[in-house]
Automatic annotation (TrEMBL):
One of its GO terms (biological process) is bile acid metabolic process. This is Oxidoreductase UcpA. Pfam families: adh_short_C2. It is an enzyme of class 1 (oxidoreductase). PANTHER family: EG:BACR7A4.14 PROTEIN-RELATED, ZGC:101858. Gene3D superfamilies: NAD(P)-binding Rossmann-like Domain. The keyword Flavoprotein does not apply. Its EC number is 1.-.-.-. GO terms for molecular function: oxidoreductase activity. It comes from the Bacteria.
Length: 257
């Protein structure tokens, strides 16, 4: 199938984990891509790996923590004469820090990547999105609604909750222009970084984590990046043409309890 044929998607955090899984799934469905990431070499490697799908693949290396990054992205997209139809705000930041120890630097880092960047990047490409009756997909988290023991998440949960509110408010505002806005709230996903962090745990900690997964996930397993990518394909496609303002849990049933 070519659900996204003749569409161009810009994906932040597009060289790793969930972002790259979305990129691959989009390319497989015929979409052209603009990948945003920090590592120029890694982006180049990802471009080559996606060429098999026959789509146009572009990449822009920039650090989204840089205050000039949004304007750099807009400039590069304009230079390449690209019109963005689908925007995936995937890049984000999360650290488990107790509330009493969360300093202004950590709070600002969460706010910048999880709230300000999606807000400003969407604003920057709004004209393109209106012109093509396109859509926005924000990657949120179950931590906006569901807390876990030993995972102090005030800064992360605050910002993902804000992203959910942004999703709904923007959907309401731009709906009359034909633009759809949705969010996906993943549970724990086996990204390369997640697997690396898990391997750093000692045997007892790994055993506790395995037990916890079976007790809090009705499907008794964590997700794969492709699970999030499959939902993103659906939301980006015309099959979801009457869906907007939704926050969709893709979490193995975690938020049912």
């Amino acid at each position: 199938m070519n659900l996204l044929r003749n569409k161009t998607a810009l994906i932040t955090g597009g060289s790793d984990g969930i972002g790259f899984a979305i990129a691959a799934a989009f390319a497989e469905q015929g979409a052209n891509l603009v990948l945003i990431g920090r590592d120029k070499e890694k982006l180049s490697h990802r471009e080559k790996s996606l060429n098999q799908y026959g789509s146009a693949i572009h990449s822009i290396a920039t650090d989204l923590n840089d205050k000039d990054s949004i304007s750099q992205i807009v400039e590069q997209v304009s230079i390449r004469n690209i019109k963005v139809n689908i925007l995936v705000n995937n890049a984000g930041f999360g650290r488990f820090i107790p509330f009493s120890k969360t300093d202004i630097i950590a709070l600002d880092y969460h706010l910048n990547l999880n709230v300000k960047v999606p807000y400003l990047l969407t604003q920057a490409f709004l004209e393109d999105l209106i012109g093509s009756r396109g859509n926005v997909i924000n990657i949120s988290s179950y931590f906006a609604k569901r807390m876990l023991p030993d995972r102090p998440s005030t800064a992360y949960s605050l910002t993902k909750g804000a992203l959910n509110s942004f999703t709904k408010a923007l959907a309401f505002e731009v709906g009359p222009h034909g633009v759809r806005v949705n969010a996906i709230a993943p549970g724990s996903v086996a990204t390369p970084q997640f697997l690396t962090n898990t391997k750093l745990l000692d045997h007892e900690a790994q055993a506790r984590f395995s037990t916890m997964v079976k007790s809090i996930y009705p499907l008794q397993t964590i997700g794969e990046p492709k699970d999030i990518a499959n939902m993103a394909v659906f939301l980006a496609s015309d099959q979801a043409s009457w869906i907007t303002g939704g926050i969709f849990p893709v979490d193995g049933g975690l938020t049912t309890n």
